[in-house]
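Input/output pair, single chain:
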Amino acid sequence: MEDVSDPPFRALCKKHGADFMFTEFISSEGLIRDAAKSVMKMDIYEYERPVGIQIFGSEIDSMIQATEIITRTNPDVVDINYGCPVKKVACKGAGAGILQDIPKMVRMTEAIVKATHLPVTVKTRLGWDDDTKYVVETAERLQDIGIEAISIHGRTRKQMYKGDADWSLIGEVKNNPRMRIPVFGNGDIDTPEKALEYKQRYGVDGIMIGRASIGYPWIFDEIKHFVKTGEHLAGPTIAERVSVAKDHLEMSVKWKGETLGIAEMKRHYSNYFKGIAHFKEYRMKLVTSYDLNEIREILDFIAQNQANFELVG
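Output:
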């Protein structure tokens, strides 16, 4: 969730029902070199708690130093990213790249656990490819050296985000009688029905949602309501979508500055207004304008004229 799960995005997810959140993943090398962007990613706020700071890297010494820096920020959890499949990360041995060297993964995790008094958790994938799906054994080994929870994405690194997520091995990890720590499942959960079905079928302790929340923070409340009652919450109206998009924009500009705040909001508009018929003209205006007041005016126009738009699907 690089350049997505920043404080403005997390504020909206929290408001709409997320129980636990993580920062964007932060480069250990960037942290120990005091890179401004990496340091900024450690910003967390009291209203977010519980919240975890997530780090990635390929060098054990750097990860130890980064953990010590993060510990001083006092998040609720230090989370290690062993799941990012992006080439520039994985091919350097970080993120999902470490799945090609499980012994190093275990050594690095143990060193991080020893470097902090905070709980350490792990986010990972099933394996590097179809021939190396060692997640059941790996999860047990990581538990035994001190992690306190694990989240598993149901794809290999080779799959990236293609095909369907396979939750069967996630279920095997959870139902391994030797596992004592919470196991969270991740991948393809984009409806309340699927969330409930997968939780019941595979027995996981919880569900991690990433891409489905981009531009749709309401998914957390919708899932929790459905799990509790078996009924669907009414989806957000066009006016509600505009209101949240405006809040997101204003928080992004305040936190990142006008230029970057406007630029990084462009990825969110398509999702905020997904499913609205005949919306292309307004979406193009939102993603091509770099004038803050003009964007505000476009959003206000959409809200004021919501009767002219139709939500479909």
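Strands lie at 21-22, 26-27, 51-56, 77-82, 120-125, 149-153, 183-186, 206-208, 276-277, 310-311. The longest helix spans residues 238-256.
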